[in-house]
Design goal:
- By secondary structure, the protein is α/β, with parallel strands linked by helices.
- The chain has one domain (3-124).
- The chain has 3 helices and 9 strands.
- The chain has helices at 3-8, 111-115, 118-121, and strands spanning 11-12, 18-22, 28-29, 40-42, 48-50, 78-79, 82-84, 131-132, 135-136.
- The strands form 4 sheets. The chain has a 3-stranded mixed beta sheet. Strands 3-6 form a two-stranded antiparallel sheet.
- β8 and β9 form a beta hairpin.
- The longest helix has 6 residues, at 3-8.
- The protein is elongated.
């Protein structure tokens, strides 16, 4: 797909302005290599939206979803790469993040409760308990 074709895909903004939307389905990478081809393109100064997934790719939704069952070669994915039309290797680019939104099906306050069951949190070794001057104190019986 050419850069102009990639730039034409658009989604409406609340103000009625069209904006390029780059989705995870367009392409996701798990390592940066020099031979990657762009999955989308943006013109200099263009405002665009990038859809991202959580570090586990949305595979941890309930307590029965186990981290041990996830392929660790496919975590911390990135949507892209995204070509900035006219940019060349070695150019310094400034990207401004205008907005950051969490998806409707994600509750950022419940993530740990949902992913790590409370029964396991109580058994984690190490520094736990109340803090004193910003530092956790070691509980008796922990290493």
């Amino acid at each position: 797909m050419s850069a102009s074709e990639l730039c034409r895909r658009s989604a409406p903004l609340a103000e009625g302005v069209a904006m390029n939307r780059i989705r995870v389905a367009d392409g996701q990478i798990f390592a940066f290599t020099p031979n990657l081809q762009p999955v989308a393109a943006a013109e200099r100064g263009e405002v665009f939206e990038v859809e991202c997934q959580d570090s586990c790719g949305g595979r941890l939704r309930t307590e029965s979803d186990l981290l041990s069952k996830i392929d660790l070669d496919h975590v911390n994915g990135a949507t892209g790469p995204i070509e900035i039309v006219g940019a060349r290797p070695g150019d310094m680019l400034r990207i401004r993040i205008l907005d950051l939104r969490v998806g409707q099906d994600v509750d950022p306050n419940r993530t740990c409760k949902m992913v790590i069951p409370k029964r396991y949190l109580a058994r984690l070794p190490g520094m736990t308990g109340p803090t004193k001057r910003g530092r956790a104190r070691k509980r008796k019986g922990t290493r």
